[in-house]
Amino acid sequence: MTTPDDAQSPNAATRAKAALRRDPWDLPDVSGLVVGVLGGTGDQGRGLAYRLAMAGQKVIIGSRAAERAQTAASELGLGIEGAENAECARRSDVVIVAVPWEGHAKTLQALREPLAGKLVIDCVNPLGFDKKGAYALKPEEGSAAEQAAALLPDSRVAAAFHHLSAVLLQDPAIEQIDTDVMVLGESRADTDLVQALAARIPGMRGVFAGRLRNAHQVESLVANLISVNRRYKAHAGLRVTDV
Q: How many degrees, rounded to 5, is the angle at CA 155 between CA 59 and CA 186?
């Protein structure tokens, strides 16, 4: 039997169409979220932690060793805290994974429980290096982000922040990071949140770039950027035109 409330409620198709009509730049307020950075003692993790904290975000750096995380946090200042990985995951609303590819699976396997229910943003690039330079690796799952999703079935996984220069992120003399961030994920609510986090950093913009099945080519593009940087002695990023 259909009730009056049922008749007035929009069905799933109507809600989906309404979502498509939404302004894609109407993003949520994420200023109150606590952001954890696993691998926050590495160059990329430190850079992201620094920029987000500079923007006013509460940030916790995670490491396998709490003392190492606390040392890095103290060096960065800005109210950043350091903690062992599991504590970092538990205390954070959103967790960025910035660990080396070689330790990606092992790290996430060990954190499945404290990451349950969290939005996990994977920014890991599976790369190999030889005398010809950097080249992309393809994980069995398809990408680092898809590996994360497989290892963390109780978390929501998105992919972003792959193409950022750690040098620029960590340089206090640089006020703006002039780049776009490709954001991938399965839920619009989640990708909107990640885009909003990216937009907290001056000069940066998050751009939706598809579902996780498209993460491999985004992760792989870093190998091309490394080649660009070597040839031109630059710290190249990306801009998406006409959006």
A: 100
Beta bridge partner(s), residue 204: 179
Residue 5 has pLDDT above 90, yes or no: no
Decide: 76 and 57 in contact? Cβ < 8 Å. Answer: no
pLDDT in tens, 75-106: 999 999 999 999 999 999 999 999 999 999 99
Helix, strand or coil, per DSSP, at residue 122: strand
**8-state DSSP, 58:** E
Structure tokens at 72: 């890095």
Residue 7 confidence (pLDDT): 46
What's the 3-state SS for 177-240? CCEEEEEEECCHHHHHHHHHHHHCCCCEEEEECCCHHHHHHHHHHHHHHHHHHHHHCCCCCCCC
